[in-house]
């Protein structure tokens, strides 16, 4: 006759877990989540997705306007920097106008990527400030 092992007997005590301090959540995580959700919503909302970057009757005239605005905001941001009054608003519109003020597709792509990066930083700053 074989005797089955007693499975009801207590086993060795498990070591107690050492409490760990959690990492502080990155404000960029929330920013990326917001942007991901906005991209999904924009995908559904914009319908036709083959719009040119420059619309209107005379796209070249628009590019000239945006290039002028980019220079204005570059000058404004320099003055703000010197006065220690920088704001995300000036950085964002400068990046937007810089991307729109060129006809070179590589510069447009780089400019829009810079705008997206600046927007992520601005969202993270808001998340940090508003906690």
UniProtKB/TrEMBL annotation:
Residues 1-63 are annotated as: Disordered. Residues 34-53 have a biased composition (Basic and acidic residues). Residues 1-16 have a biased composition (Low complexity). This is dATP/dGTP diphosphohydrolase N-terminal domain-containing protein.
